[in-house]
Amino acid sequence: MRTALIFPPQWYPSQPYLALPTLKAYLETKGHAVDQFDFNVETYDLFLSRGYLEHCIKKIRSRLSKSVKSSEDNEAEPIHRQIVEDEGYLETILSEIDDAKQVLRDEERFFQFDEYKNAYTTLKVAMQLISYAHYPSKIDLDSFFMKGNPEENLQGILTATQSSGTNPFLEVYEDYLLAKVDWNKYGLVGISIIHAGQVIPGLTLARILRARYPHLHVVIGGSVFARHQDILDDKKILFEEMFHSIVLFEGEHPLDQLIEHLKKEKPLDTVPNLIYLKNGKVVRNAAAKALSYDQLACPNFDDLPLDKYLMPYPVLPYMASRGCYWGKCTFCTHSFIYDSHYRKENEERVAEELDYLGKKYKTKYFTFSDEAISPNAFDRMSKAILTQGVDMRALGMLKFESDSVETVELFENMYKAGFLMLFFGLESANDRILSIIEKGCDQKTEKRVLENSSLAGIWNHLYLFFGFPTEEKHEAQETIDFTVEHSELGDGTIHSVGQSVFSLEKDSAIYHNPAKFQIDRILRDPERDMAIIFDYEIDKGMSKEEVLGVYENFNKVIDANFPSRNIWNYLSREHFLLYLDHYGREEILNMARPLVQST
């Protein structure tokens, strides 16, 4: 019995997602025959083609010509009419789309920023056209939204997965992708759903497979349904119409056992971490302890169409650990998603696997997917990479530490080993907010670490958010001032920034103990019975309007203090890694100055 693992849309199509290659590798060590399919990149390869865009134009014209129009057709009519009447606009998109896609795959043209920017803009405009054809849904290279957020309630899921007018993936599966696979070869299909934007695309696929191929056992994995495990008792219809089972948390051992049980036609009662329908009831099997890292296998990217990703070279994801060694941040849900203790790989083996993967798939580019790598682990890993002579360029995530381990020498070794870019979860630069977030550091630590990393030549990217419960405006301003002080026009130790507004997520420490954070009430809307993000009431701190005002103001601050935003704002993180390796940090900063002057 063969197994098919599928990564559905929607995800930025620049590299594979790590879940499938990791599961495939492990299951094959257990003797299972496993194929993997990246339906996300296949979908975007189709979307970004002249033929599909012409099809979208026909859909728009068809909606305009209806004698009886829906309210959504009437709402979209002015936009639709403007689009179809502008023949020059349409032909520009149609004639340039295939070449734009190739620019991002071409080694020379990719690094010509003006050409890259034009190609990227063309791709974005093409995605707008696809959105208009499926109005009011909105789809982009890195997002997918349907009206009313149907993934947040059961009825919305049931309706959206069958809505051919507004769900573009229904047609893509039925008319294009499913025909490329001989599903009769398989006994089990696993579909990974790792964020909210994949819920409708992933369950649309599950529903079609379940209906067309009764012999298949369809199993869902990924973080979304792990977080839904407590609300499934009254949602039997999902198991009846879309999938047979859900694997919780890390999938290696549960999937191995599920395949074995299906092969031998045994009851599923002893498959660990499995939720399924038994005698008309949703049941959850006993949990299993996560595997130690030495039991896991080196990722296997075979079967994946590496030439179809929007990259001139393969950029492979890799993990040297599971879980977070800190695991205390009160807004975070990662420790729940893994439901296991922190484990890491032996750093010597990490270097060996990076060398093996680089040579096998002809690349030196990697993105470390670890939640956070400790400074000590980074130190040992960098030394192992240097000792073994591994040719590698990578980005990774590092946590600010309160002790003195993050020295200039550490970062110099990391840079020499090939870590060109580091992502830091700053969150805030106000010590009170850092304390209640339980980041385990203060502003002084943040400043020291950023200085040391920058001195070594590394590009420092910060994540931060505004509106943590009880945060006052002056505290948010302290974070803004810190960013400005260390910006490109300041001392130059911060090189790029990503900002967001705090959201209260299910299964975070705040969610489970709101009173501790002075939240009066979490608002639970029965119409959003499958929501992951919740509104709440609180008397202290900034109002929602004030938080949004701070966010919008900070966007202007970034523009004013980071001239290089004119470059990095167009590049995905994987693309930017290649630019850093090609040009170097200082040249990228220099490249941005003429762009600022021209605007």
Structure overview:
- The protein has 599 residues and is an alpha/beta fold.
- The protein has two domains: 2-42 and 167-284, Response regulator (Rossmann fold, 3-Layer(aba) Sandwich), CATH 3.40.50.2300; 313-598, tm_1862 like domain (pyruvate-formate lyase- activating enzyme, Alpha-Beta Horseshoe), CATH 3.80.30.
- It is built from 24 helices and 20 strands.
- Helix 19 (473-485) links the parallel strand 16 and strand 17.
- Helix 3 crosses helix 4, helix 5 (87-103) crosses helix 6 and helix 19 packs parallel to helix 21.
- The longest helix is centred in the first third of the chain and has 21 residues, at 113-133.
- It starts with a strand and ends with a helix.
What attributes does this structure have?
about 600 residues, Rossmann fold, globular, alpha/beta, six-stranded parallel β-sheet, pyruvate-formate lyase- activating enzyme, 2 domains, 20 strands
| Poorly predicted runs of 5 or more residues | none
Q: Portion of residues in helices?
A: 40-55%
Strand content: 15-25%
Gyration radius (Cα, Å) is: 24 Å
Cα distance spanning the termini: 60 Å
Strand order of the largest sheet: 2-1-5-6-7-8-9
